[in-house]
Amino acid sequence: MADTRATDETSDNTGGNHSSGDGNPESREVEKIRDLKSVLVTSVLNLEELDVNLYRGTHHWVPRSRRLFGGQIVGQALVAAAKSVGDDVYVHSLHCYFVRAGDPTVAVLYQVDHIRDGRSFMVRSVRAIQHGQPILICQASFHKLQPSPLQHQFTMPMVPPPEDLLTEEQLIHLYLTKPNVPEKLRQFLNQRLANEVPIEIKPIQPQPSLRRPATEPRKLFWVRAQGHIGEGNMKLHCCVAAYISDYAFLDTAMLSLADYKAKFFASLDHSMWFHTTFRSDEWMLYECESPWAANSRGLVQGRMWRRDGVLAVSCSQEGVFRVQPVNHRNKL
């Protein structure tokens, strides 16, 4: 993923039609930046209002599983919920259940129910619907900021800054230049490159091999949204963070298992807590760990840290795993 982040100058002029002029490379780069911003904000998480408290999402990013990406459904559900509250409240948590696999060939309807409007908190329930049935149920809570002397947090892990690390895409390109890369791994990495994901990742300890040794189920990587989103709309940054939070999260539980692969895995639920202001288009450290796995299920927990060491977001997710040995052969 090329680093084509917009400057404040270009981001202030995104309206109307833009011509590439006489083929000036700089003009084409500005066009690319504007297009990228449009994909992130006005397409990936954009919803069409059909009626009061009823929205439709049509732009889908489909991962290798060929099902809808859970992070996008969570992010769009939060967008729908946020449209029903005022500017004086901020989302502080969401809790979602994935109840059916999403169909990438049809639109998703989002129906918002007003559960409670209190003096300090507001609660919304959102159902994501396809083929007349819910595929996700989301409860989102919003809060009016209330300063308090009760304040504490964990300490951010010490890691190299993102400027000293390569992106996931750069690491894959570098690895593919090496001789004797197994063909199966080469195909896998080329598939990763073909998936155009609107986020950037810089792993702290990259491991490109398919045959990984068993390690502590914990990983860290820097992450940010591609393109420029800007300040001012904290709810939008939370929606983008919801999208980001589901990427490369659940497979943390597989790190403790050597010589096995997941022939199937899927998210069962997803929860997030938003602690303070942040920008999803700036680097955040995503700390992922799995405290437990058994009975074909695994639990993962995550923390997103701002670069200044402030804990911005906490996440939790449980998934179902069907695993098999790497060298498994069907006996026919």
Attribute tags:
single chain; 332 residues; alpha+beta; twelve-stranded antiparallel sheet; 12 strands; 34% strand; globular; disordered N terminus; acetyl-CoA hydrolase activity
Can you describe this structure?
- With 332 residues, this protein is an alpha+beta fold.
- The protein has a single domain (28-145, 163-330), classed as Porin.
- It has helices spanning 8-11, 25-44, 70-82, 168-176, 183-194, 234-245, and strands at residues 48-51, 54-57, 90-98, 108-117, 121-130, 133-143, 199-203, 218-225, 260-274, 284-294, 297-306, 311-325.
- It has a twelve-stranded antiparallel sheet with strand order 1-2-4-5-6-3-9-12-11-10-8-7, with helices on one face.
- The chain starts with 7 loop residues before the first helix and ends in a 7-residue tail after the last strand.
- Residues 60-143 form the Acyl-CoA thioesterase-like N-terminal HotDog domain.
- It is found in: Peroxisome matrix.
